[in-house]
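$ fold --in a.seq
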Amino acid sequence: MYAANQTSVSASIPRAMQQTATPVISLTGAQQNELLRGLSREELIDLFVHLDLVPLEAGKRLFDSGELMEYAYFPTNAIVSLQYETEEGGAAEVAVVGREGVVGVTMYENERANCCAVVQTSGYGYRIKSSVLRQAFFSGGALAQQLMRHTSALFAQLAQTVAGVRHGSIEQRLCRWLLERLDRSLSNELKVTQEMIANMLGVRRESITCCAGKLQEEGLIEYRRGTVTVIDRAGMERRAGSCYSPA
């Protein structure tokens, strides 16, 4: 994906460390996550022995609200939805994370999740023990800066989500929801259903059907059962208005 060094980590770290790094992964593989790509080669190599490449299947719950977060995940081509769930069983999306960031960062021992993390688009990610990532954070350097920058971006995304619910129309919120996933997708085709969108936005499915139909009539999207293709991104951004800013 990126024009990065194709050399595997086995060519970059001492032999003694190679024996503990299972499986062997490549620099390019890890750099598919933009947060990891922002690290220096030396910092990235230091993390290699702690990273595991894992499949992230749609619907998989990485952690639930109130649970201890044992691992953090750096998605590459997967998309993870952060959701707040009510005692009555309802859920609303508060943020979304893809290849630009990380899910499950903890700043202190025995920290518990204040939301749940659900894989929404299947793919892969690099998993690391939260305790190891926390130790690396407190060591300073580019990793600490990247994590703080990502946390700031998540807060901004959360604020935009809240403002959209309060002031945005359903159509604007739908455009924003699709654009957020487009930002984190490798193509303009999104595997989503109207029911999923309605649940995440907290609106009736009929409202999503109506808005999606209107966007399709205007040539902004093409909707087939379970698939939305964004045809006119610029038009979608105009329709989203202040509800959306690029990730």
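$ fold --in b.seq
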Amino acid sequence: MTPHRYFIINKPQNMVSQFVSSHDVRLLGALDFEFPEGTHAVGRLDSLSEGLLILTTNKKVTNLLFLGEVPHKRKYWVNVGHVVPPETVELLRTGIPIRIKGGGYYITAPCEVEIIDRPAILSKHKNETQPDVPNTWLSITLTEGKYHQVRKMVREANHRCRRLIRASIEDLELGDLPPGGVKEIEEETFFRLLKIENWKSAISSDDFLLEPSIENPAC
């Protein structure tokens, strides 16, 4: 049996989180790396979002990550227009109504939100060419992933999302990986950083063979 392989990438903007598409879009295959056959993305980032994306040949990772008993934390760095006041930070922390499929509203679960300095490891972005325009960087950590949740949260708080980067999933971090960069991670380290403890028994069993329908991406 061929050992499974695990990668993280820093997905650049204007790239779709898949290898095959019927549309004329930039795909993961454009990265300067030869991935093994059967590699697929775990979860997704929308085309405009950047940052940490997991790729693996192990089809059971999606279930282990999203259907476990303990939800996994995902941290995002979000740059929004204008200054964000303390009351808005508190609103985002405690729960804000966002529109979901079907036209109704969903109140987001409490999450971790704080105002941060611009992360020094980030490359410059075209939206940051006007330094005199007021803006705020936020760190938002979620355990749920409604469709485009982060973008909808800041929009409902009356701020335009200028840039969105996934920085980490649990202890699996983007670090200083450059846009388009790829890093392979050893199997035991991969699951330890994701805080998934039952991976050995899950991989050796016939359970969780099918990927679930996950409301991803959150951004």
